[in-house]
Structures are given as structure tokens and as C-alpha cells.
Specification:
15 strands, 8 helices, 2 domains, disordered C terminus, 29% strand, 15-stranded mixed beta sheet, Jelly Rolls, disordered N terminus, 22% helix, alpha+beta
């Protein structure tokens, strides 16, 4: 067989293998970007990517949307999630102790999503007894089937149940929610307020994509493999909000971002904000945490002279030597050198 024909055949086989692997990876992916309006970024491990429709998402991915953008994510179980307006969403968060306050009361259910901030619309599929859990810094939401719209921000949160039922876990207490329930809680409030009247500001700021039912579109991307566009390694500003999150969330994320400490700019920013994430001190300054060397044993010193005898000898008078018995040593003859007067005389 001609060598060029053989090389062409091998390249085609390699491409087919890559396509097959891409298709199987898509089939195994737990989530898929089915709608994108505007821009959205993906943080995966230590890299950033630009999202596109059809991109498969995996556990541990972070999806972030700027103001005015909207992204829809569909899960393999039929759950549909809409994210908008400075949204920061973590898929399948890995929680570490100390955990978020909502976790102990959530009947030990593994959370599928963690919303740090932003707007979210969540439509879960009714498949009892399986439950879907959403966690945020202020509350947890568990449901076997419901459609919920929520806004999470540092100063508090609001939540509206369009249909279905759910359990709200906030500050250690659980509340049963049903359709048309509206929940709001300010950052300094002791407990949430639950009523049937939607807040005026909530309705006014509600993203337009959330006013209608989220359409299922994942089937349109069956058999397709879409890769996100690489944007480079994450900078501190890209993940700063997560590094300032509660310890239960940020500790696990800090581990995956440790390699970025080798970058001077990232390291400088981490050091400047070390008080917010003290776990990075061990990464930046490992010598501070090295075990201390064992105490050194002082070497044995020779015995000191008898001070009493020394003092007695010092006090005794010196013995005089008669002049007649003193014989000075014979002088040593010194040969003249070239610079001496003897040699100059010659």
C-alpha cells in the first residue's frame, strides 16, 4: 500500500476514534448547555472556557453569567436550570467540613447545585422518592418535583414556588413550601417570611427568560460534540467570589486551584487577601508549617579548674631569684641579610 494512502487512512481512523470518544463523553455527561443568550464562562479545574450551546458539563464545573446574559442547563434526569444576571453556579459541589449550615438539615442528600449568587430558575422532574437539592449560602431547597425561581445576593434572598412542592431549610429549621408561596429573608433577619404575595422588586427585576416555561432542547444536540473555547488559566478575579465563600465550599475549590499559586499575579492577589482564605497560607508559605527540629543537647564541657587552689596560688608571694644564680641564655647569632648594614659595608 502506498505510504501516503496509509497515512491518510490512519488519520481518518484517528478522527473516527476521536468522534466516537466525543460522542460517548457527551452521552455520559450529566448536564448540557442547551440555550445561551449573551456570554457565559466555564471554570473547569484551573482553566476558563467560553461556553456555547451543546457543550457538555461535568461534576465540579462552575458556570458564570454576566449581567444581561442567560444560560440554560439540562440534566440527564430531565431537570432544567436557567441562570442569569451575574449568576455563579457550581455543579455537584464537593462539601468539606465545616459544611454549609443547610447541609445537616437536608437529610444528608447530596446537592446537585450550589448557587453562590444570581438568578436561577429550577424545574425538577417528579421522580419520588428521588429528590433534587439546591444549596446556597443562606438556604437549602429540597424537592421531588417543583418549579422555583430564586434570587440570591449578599444582602439576602427571595424565592418563589411556581408549582409543585419543596422543603426550605434555612438556619437549621425546615419549612414546607407549595405552589405560589413567596419567601424572602434579609441578611440580618432571624427567619424567612413566607406569604402568597410576590415582592414588587422581585417582579420588576425578574429576567424575561424566567417569565415563561423553560423549554427542553437537549435532544437537539444528540450525537453532537461541542467543545468550549479555551480562554486561558483562571485569574484571581475569576474565582475571587468563590475563594471568599463559606469554608465548606471554598476549601475543596482551593485544592484544585493550588497550582495557580505558581503564577506571580495570582499569588500576589492571594497573599493580599489571605485573611479571607487562611488555608492558602500553607500553600504560599510552606516553611512556616514544617515540623520544628528536635532540641539540641548541649555537649559536655571539661571540668573547670579548682578555683580555690587557683586563688591560693595567686595570693602566695613570688619567690625571688638571686642575681648570682641567673644565667641568661646565649645570644643567637643572626646572619646578615643583603639589606643589613654588614652586607652594605662590603
Amino acid at each position: 500500500m502506498d505510504s501516503r494512502l496509509l497515512q491518510h487512512t490512519m488519520r481518518r481512523l484517528s478522527c473516527l476514534c476521536l468522534l466516537a470518544l466525543g460522542g460517548s463523553a457527551w452521552a455520559a455527561a450529566p448536564a448540557l448547555v442547551s440555550i445561551l443568550q449573551g456570554e457565559a464562562t466555564l471554570v473547569r479545574e484551573t482553566s476558563r472556557f467560553a461556553l456555547a450551546e451543546g457543550v457538555a458539563l461535568v461534576d465540579g464545573d462552575i458556570v458564570q453569567t454576566p449581567a444581561g446574559s442567560f444560560v440554560q442547563i439540562e440534566f440527564d434526569d430531565g431537570t432544567i436550570v436557567g441562570l442569569s444576571e451575574n449568576g455563579r453556579l457550581l455543579l455537584k459541589p464537593l462539601l468539606t467540613a465545616p459544611k454549609t449550615p443547610s447541609v445537616p438539615s437536608a437529610t444528608n442528600i447530596a446537592a446537585q447545585l450550589y448557587l453562590l449568587e444570581g438568578w436561577i430558575k429550577l424545574t425538577t422532574v417528579q421522580k419520588p422518592p428521588a429528590e433534587f437539592a439546591l444549596l446556597t449560602p443562606a438556604f437549602g431547597l429540597v424537592s421531588t418535583g417543583a418549579t422555583v425561581v430564586a434570587r440570591v445576593q449578599p444582602k439576602g434572598y427571595e424565592l418563589f414556588v411556581e408549582s409543585g412542592s419543596a422543603r426550605l431549610i434555612a438556619r437549621g429549621s425546615a419549612s414546607a413550601l407549595k405552589g405560589n408561596d413567596f419567601v424572602s429573608q434579609a441578611a440580618n433577619a432571624d427567619k424567612p417570611a413566607i406569604g402568597a404575595n410576590l415582592g414588587g422588586e422581585f417582579l420588576q427585576l425578574l429576567p424575561r427568560q424566567f417569565r415563561d416555561r423553560l423549554p427542553a432542547r437537549a435532544a437537539l444536540f444528540a450525537g453532537r460534540s461541542v467543545n468550549p473555547k479555551p480562554l486561558g488559566p483562571v485569574a484571581y478575579a475569576d474565582v475571587s467570589a468563590w475563594l471568599h465563600a463559606e469554608p465548606g465550599i471554598r476549601l475543596a475549590l482551593s485544592k484544585q486551584w493550588r497550582p495557580r499559586a505558581a503564577d506571580r499575579a495570582f499569588r500576589t492577589e492571594v497573599a493580599a487577601n489571605l485573611a479571607a482564605h487562611t488555608e492558602w497560607e500553607r500553600v504560599l508559605y510552606p516553611k512556616r508549617f514544617l515540623p520544628k527540629p528536635p532540641a539540641r543537647v548541649a555537649a559536655a564541657r571539661p571540668h573547670a579548674p579548682n578555683t580555690a587552689n587557683a586563688a591560693q596560688n595567686a595570693a602566695a608571694p613570688a619567690t625571688a631569684i638571686p642575681a648570682s644564680s641567673y644565667n641568661p641564655p646565649n645570644p643567637v647569632a643572626v646572619s646578615p641579610t643583603p639589606e643589613s648594614s654588614a652586607s652594605s659595608a662590603n
